[in-house]
Structures are given as structure tokens and as C-alpha cells.
Amino acid sequence: MASTHRCEYCDSTITSEDPKCPYCGAENPNYVPDSPRRVFLPRTIAELKEYCAERGMPLLRMRFFIGEDYRRPRAFGIYRDGDEVIVYKNKSDGSRAERYRGPDEERAVGEIFAKLLEECHSRGIYPDGEPPAGGGQSRKKPRRSAGSVLLRCLLIWTLLMAILGAVSFFMHRNDGYYNFGGGQVYYHYGNDWYYTYDDNTAGYWYEADEPPVGDYADYYAGDDWDSDWGVSDFRESSTWESIQESHSSGSSDYDSWDSGGTDWDSDW
Q1: pTM exceeding 0.90
Q2: Domain extents for the chain?
Q3: Of 168, 212, 233, 245, which one is least surrounded by beta carbons within 10 A?
């Protein structure tokens, strides 16, 4: 597991996996070239989940569903069904293409892991280490004096917090539960809608393309869950946990991930 440290020049938080500070470019004396995170190769579904969690991957945004039989369009996934492990891709039209179905979990994990890295690499993200020589642009900034770097970081941080505060307010001002009747309860979070159903024992909430009606404001039921609705609490679901995990990872290479950049019409 990687250890965290403070950069000696700009006081930013860095890890033992960073050869240089990603903020000021200073050398990291605590860098471990062959840390477990860099050489870790997942062979089971559980290990793949761990791999993604260590790197703060927002899997819901990336449209990768590890350990889930997700049925909505535009998704990659892997799950176990009895003695078989299934690797799949749901296309834009909702049809499913199976990449692998069989008893070999290591092979199945290898298939989806390779696709996960391919999608990351196509966006200039290298969770498996540095890009190959000549294969990507360096993201490291030239080293500057400690004073100028610290002042620059403070100014950027202040401006960023102000912008994020304003954006968060407007994005989440309509968050909460919406009860459309007949067991149709949706949760609105940011720009996304989620729904579940009363016999969903796993309590998973699925992403919806849109609410059942266009003028949804009149159906607002509040931000507090009511057991009388007959559905699980969105804020206690694995979907909510995934969203919070992706947000708690802070600013990262994945912040600008756009799933529209994936070829969803091909078999794989």
C-alpha cells in the first residue's frame, strides 16, 4: 500500500508512487519505484475492485460495473453466476455482447482489466504506471521556487473553492426524492436520476435516462427517505457509496471522464 507524504517545497500531499510532486515538479525523496500499487495485477473480481478503489476510479462515471449484472445501456461489467464468470458489454441500444463466459475467473478478470486500461489509456490516463516513452505527454510541471509555488497554489485553491461552491449549489439545488406514484420513486442527484423497485433485495439504484414526466418539480418528496414508499433508501445503497467514493478521491485524472468517448456500438 502506498504511503502519503508532504512535498518539501509546496507542502502538497503526495504518495510514495510519485517520482516527482505532480504540483510543483520537485523530486520526491520517498518515491518507491516498485511499490505494490504499480506491480499489482488483479486476478479475481475482489482484487479488481481493490485495484480500482486504490486509484480512486469513479466506476459509475466510467461505466464499469465490477461484480454486477448491470442491465442498462452503455456499460462494461463482470459478475459471477454460479460456477461461471461473465464479462459483458451493453451497447447503446441495450443489446449485450458477452466477451467471456466460463469458469476461469482469472481469464475473465484479465479480459475486463485489459478493457479498463484501454479506456484509460485512450484518455491519457495510466493507472498501471507511466506512459511508454514517446507515447504520451508529460504532465509534470517545471520546478519553481518554493515561495512562488506556494503563493500560486493558494491563489488557485481559493479560486477553485469559490468556483466549486457555486457549481455545487446550482448542480444540487434540486437533489432529493421524487414520488411519481404507483411505486415510481426516483432520486435526483446533480444532473442524474436514479431509480429502484420494491422487490430489489440488493437495494441497488439504477441510473435513469430521465424522470417519468417532464415537469417533475410538483413530485418533489423531500430529501428524507420514507419507508412507506416501498423502496430502499438511496443514501444507504451501494450506488450512493460509489458516488461518494468517486467524489472523496478529490481532483484526479478521472474528473473529466466522458463515457461518450467510448465506442458503444462495437462488440467490445
Answers
A1: no
A2: 40-135, 174-248
A3: 168
